[in-house]
Specification:
The chain has 108 residues and is mainly alpha-helical. The chain has five helices and two strands; from the N terminus they run αααββαα. The model has no long low-confidence stretch (mean pLDDT 92). The chain has helices at 2-14, 27-34, 38-51, 70-91, 96-107, and strands at 54-57, 61-64. The protein folds into two domains: 2-64, Winged helix-like DNA-binding domain superfamily/Winged helix DNA-binding domain (Arc Repressor Mutant, subunit A); 70-107.
């Protein structure tokens, strides 16, 4: 569960919902908001801190690391979406040319 929360937080950072240096909800606030245990949120924040995505300081809260390589995080997010799109295209037996054409259309 904490890994899903980590991915959701990374996604929100990657799309700009939480830019570098912006504060994150407290552990307690986020636990109540998404209806999970405080321990789960603490674990997610701890792991995100280890990865350098966020900074946590006791008594001051957590915020998005201003030294975060945002482009790397965004590339990671893009790769995950492309993987999902590729799997879906394969399950639909969509020809590669059609998939590339659709991708090109959305990039314009």
């Amino acid at each position: 569960m904490y890994q899903q929360i980590m991915e959701q937080i990374k996604q929100r950072i990657a799309v700009g919902d939480w830019p570098p240096n912006s504060p994150l909800p407290s552990v307690r606030e986020l636990a109540v908001e998404i209806k999970v245990s405080i321990i789960t949120i603490k674990r997610a924040y701890l792991e995100l801190g280890r990865e350098g995505v966020i900074v946590t300081q006791q008594g001051k809260g957590s915020w998005v690391n201003d030294r975060l390589d945002l482009q790397a995080l965004q590339r990671e997010e893009l790769i995950q979406h492309l993987e999902q799109a590729g799997k879906l295209a394969k399950s639909l037996a969509l020809p590669e040319e059609k998939m590339l054409q659709m991708l090109k259309q959305y990039m314009e």
